[in-house]
Write a structure and sequence with these properties.
alpha/beta, Aspartate Aminotransferase, domain 2, 2 domains, two-stranded antiparallel sheet, 13 helices, 11 strands, binds pyridoxal-5'-phosphate
């Protein structure tokens, strides 16, 4: 069986966990959390970051931090993971779903423009597969309408827009270290707070609504309940594991990109023959090797190939189901049809991508797809 995903262990993850256990400091915001924070500050120039237990939690923190509530409209792509929307629905906001681009699952700027009303408070962009959205145009809209911007950069570690790291554009941005992402900690996430006026409060929300973080820095002599909050910080065990992965980020990235390029090259003939589309990375974006997908001509063709690969024990998968058509939201969606989101939802197929894949595995997967088309 070729699994769709399998986390890769480099070694320092377990050494670090061991060290945390030996030192007897397991609660959050310890040495390894601080080392993870420093990694993101140094490598990407983020001025404030907070580890969280998931990207979902980081999105919920963003929603609290921006005081989103009833009466607010939040523009979100329909083609995304459910947490992108849920974080704002939980605060009572109304979600307005925008469409994807025709040629890429990322949110369409024209579609965003059509969704803006006097009630719009924020735009949430998702850098699908780690490829940047059209940030110059989106930043223009954000400024013109005085909106908040949140980047759901769950898949976008070590990726850039015209040389600037993803996660550095929004008032806040969120990353994921779920086991299916590039850098993993089982479950885990990160909130980036770029807007300096929101940074102090972000620490308070993170620490259950208390000013404990400032207390630990010695800035105040006692701490107490000063605002809303929850327990968004992960334990040191998670941070220790994550820091071990981060110390191998270059290996992770080069390994994934190599696999991505191998797929692209081996499947390009079939793509040129018109069987399916290969991913197109916009010229302003980089490829961080997060997902390799192909886009088939119909749902029928996608499902047939998926099932065929299953019989060969190749773990291909599809995602996402358009959120505006979900059971929970379909009756609440007041907007228009979102044909591009629906097309990716019905026709996109993801191939296995993880560091345990050998060249033989990739050859076998690509050969299986070739054989499928030459025999059908
Ligand atoms: C994975 C993912 C999330 C959720 O991340 P968790 O860390 O599992 O909460 C949110 N948004 C997108 C776009 C994702 O890919």
């Amino acid at each position: 069986m070729i699994r769709f995903n399998k986390p890769y262990l480099f070694g320092p993850e377990l050494q670090n966990v061991n060290q945390a256990v030996t030192q007897g400091r397991l609660a959050g915001n310890g040495q390894f959390t601080k080392q993870c924070h420093k990694f993101f500050e140094d490598r990407y120039g983020f001025s404030k970051v907070l580890l969280t237990t998931s990207c979902t939690d980081a999105l919920e923190m963003s929603s609290l931090l921006l005081n989103i509530g009833p009466g607010d409209e939040i523009i979100i792509p329909s083609f995304t993971f459910v947490s992108t929307a849920n974080a704002f629905v939980l605060r009572g906001a109304k979600i307005v779903f925008a469409d994807s681009n025709e040629s890429h699952p990322n949110i369409s700027v024209d579609s965003i423009r059509r969704c803006i009303t006097a009630q719009t408070k924020a735009i949430v962009v998702v850098h699908y597969g780690g490829a940047a959205c059209d940030m110059n145009s989106i930043m223009d809209l954000v400024k013109e309408h005085d909106l908040f911007l949140i980047e759901d950069a769950a898949q976008a570690i070590e990726s850039f827009y015209k040389g600037k790291p993803l996660g550095s554009f929004g008032h806040c941005a969120t990353f994921s270290f779920h086991e299916t992402k590039n850098v993993v900690a089982g479950e885990g996430g990160l909130l980036v707070v770029n807007d300096t006026s929101l940074q102090k409060r972000s620490e308070i929300l993170w620490e259950k609504g208390t000013n404990r973080t400032a207390f630990f820095r010695g800035e105040i002599d006692k701490y107490g309940w000063v605002d809303l909050g929850s327990s968004f910080l992960p334990s040191e065990l998670i941070a220790a594991y994550l820091f071990g992965q981060l110390s191998h980020i270059d290996d992770i990235q080069s390994g994934r990109i190599k696999i991505w390029n191998a797929y692209f090259k081996k499947l390009s003939k079939l793509s040129e023959a018109g069987y399916f589309e290969l991913p197109r990375i916009p010229e302003y974006a980089t490829n961080n090797g997060h997902v390799f997908f192909i886009v088939l001509k119909s749902k029928q063709e996608r499902d047939a190939l998926l099932n065929h690969l299953k019989t060969l024990e190749i773990g291909a998968v599809f995602h996402y189901l358009s959120l505006h058509k979900s059971e929970y939201y379909k009756d609440k969606h007041e907007g228009s049809d979102l044909p591009n989101s629906d097309r990716f939802s019905e026709c996109l197929l993801r191939l296995p991508l993880h560091l345990h894949l050998s060249n033989t595995d990739i050859d076998f997967i690509c050969k299986s797809i070739e054989d499928y088309y030459s025999n059908s």
